[in-house]
Structures are given as structure tokens and as C-alpha cells.
Amino acid sequence: MTETNLNPNNIRCVNEKCRTLILKKNSAELKTNLTLPEMTSKSEKISSRGWFLSNIYTFDNIGVTKPTQMDSFGNDFRFLICAECEIGPLGYLDNANKSIFLAEDRVFQDDA
Ligand SMILES: [Zn+2]
């Protein structure tokens, strides 16, 4: 059984001098206890808790890096970064599997 748990608040850039709106509230479903493979091409660790989206255009503002690689995710794999200040990675875009993930602990959420 899957619980629907949409983001209750606007999600913004984690950089306090930036705070660009990344995702409006009620846009994406929070998922937890994911098992993510180890990063190979970057030393950055990405949280296993966050929001999955199926369409990049759901974001209000987002930037993506050039393609990189990650074990078992294929070649067309990119990191999400802030469109304004380019802080990141905030999550990833996996074009091969058409999945987009935004890590909960890499973003700032407005108070309800
Ligand atoms: Zn930013």
C-alpha cells in the first residue's frame, strides 16, 4: 500500500541568501526508505528520503548538470541544482528511467 503524502509547503533553495522557489506545495509525493545505489562519479551522498516527480516541468525553478554516471542508473543521469545559485546536488534526474528525485534534506521548506 502506498500512502499519498504530498509536500505540504513550498520547497525552496537551501541557500539562505537565495531561497528560490523550487517546487510549489502539493506538487510531489514524499517517499521514504528508498534504497539508492552508491554514487560513483561524485562523492556527494544523496538522502534516501525525498520527493519523486515524473515531469521536470513540475518544478517552478530547477537546474540540471551535464550528464554524469551512477551505478545501475544508465548513462543519462544528471544532478539537480538550484537554477539561480547553482547549489547542489539537490537530487537527480534519471532520464533512462524517467524518474526525478528531490532530496528532503537538501532543500528548505516554508513554514505551513
Ligand atoms: Zn539557490
UniProtKB/TrEMBL annotation:
In Pfam terms, one family for this protein is Mss4
UniProt keywords (A-Z) are: Guanine-nucleotide releasing factor, Protein transport, Transport
Entry superkingdom: Eukaryota
Q: What's one GO-annotated cellular component?
A: membrane
Q: Which GO terms describe its biological process?
A: post-Golgi vesicle-mediated transport; protein transport; small GTPase-mediated signal transduction
Residue ranges of the TM segments? none
Q: What Gene Ontology terms describe what this protein does at the molecular function level?
A: guanyl-nucleotide exchange factor activity; zinc ion binding
Q: Which PANTHER family match?
A: GUANINE NUCLEOTIDE EXCHANGE FACTOR MSS4
Could you tell me what this protein is called? Mss4-like domain-containing protein
Kindly list the organism's lineage: Eukaryota, Fungi, Fungi incertae sedis, Cryptomycota, Cryptomycota incertae sedis
